[in-house]
Amino acid sequence: MSVSQDDTRVIYKPKDSREEFFVFGNPDQVLKWRKDKSIPIAEVVQSFDVFEIVNGGNEGIAGRASKQRLENAFGTSNNMEVIEYILQHGNFHKAHKGHEKSSDKKHRTMINESRGKGISTSANNTGIHN
Prior knowledge:
The protein is an alpha+beta fold. The chain has helices at residues 27-35, 67-74, 79-89; strands spanning 8-12, 21-25, 51-53, 62-64, 91-94, 99-101, 108-110. The longest helix has 11 residues, at 79-89. It comes from Funneliformis geosporum.
């Protein structure tokens, strides 16, 4: 799945929990789906995966939620049931951090948002944080 600047996370946070579960979807389609459940989910979400923030909050590492985690949080490990629940009860969060859309709509480039210089690959500069 490739995430573009137009993709949005639909995030659900269970009460009394630090866990956050989310799916990637089109906000306009999610709003339409909430009013008309006959719209196919395939037109609403970018993938049929449920993700979670491992370390809690928006700054943690995102990964696919395990069946056990889904069972504990939603009472089911059925991805479709969980996705529908998140779409119905979740909140929107733009997922544009770390992505850049070029002026050419057919060409999108992923940018790396680093918090430092990192490791030098130059022959003249060896080591970390030169």
